[in-house]
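note to self: dont lose this again. the chain is below, predicted strucutre after it. 138 aa total, dont forget to put it in the shared folder this time
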Amino acid sequence: MGKLDGKTVIITGGVHGFGAAYVRAAAAEGANVAVCDVLDAASIVAEVGDKAWGRTCDVSDRDSVASFVAETVDRFGCVDGLVNNAAVFASLMNKPFEDIDPDEFDLVMRVNIRGVFEMCRAVLPSMRARGYGKIVNI
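---
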């Protein structure tokens, strides 16, 4: 028996790095895991097995997020947890502030800020309906 048996958790940015580690850990604790990423989630889903499902989803796009959450609820019945892990920033780290392109900055804000907003907004109805839910913002 795992700590997350029977719970459904959405993990954004779940294909590589820390996100993939969160996917593995949640599945190992018994959770149904929905992997949300702009990259193809097939490899991490195959690795984790039947406890995981995933598809591409742009967290900064309201329609993409809404359809991802709706499909997660259709598959697993609810959303018990959300781990907002998706982020972009690496390209900003190696340049002086004045060299950051405004479009690049806008992308960072869309993913890192708006993405958290859109995901929280989309899972809230499922969590409120059941009177339960946990959100972790990384």
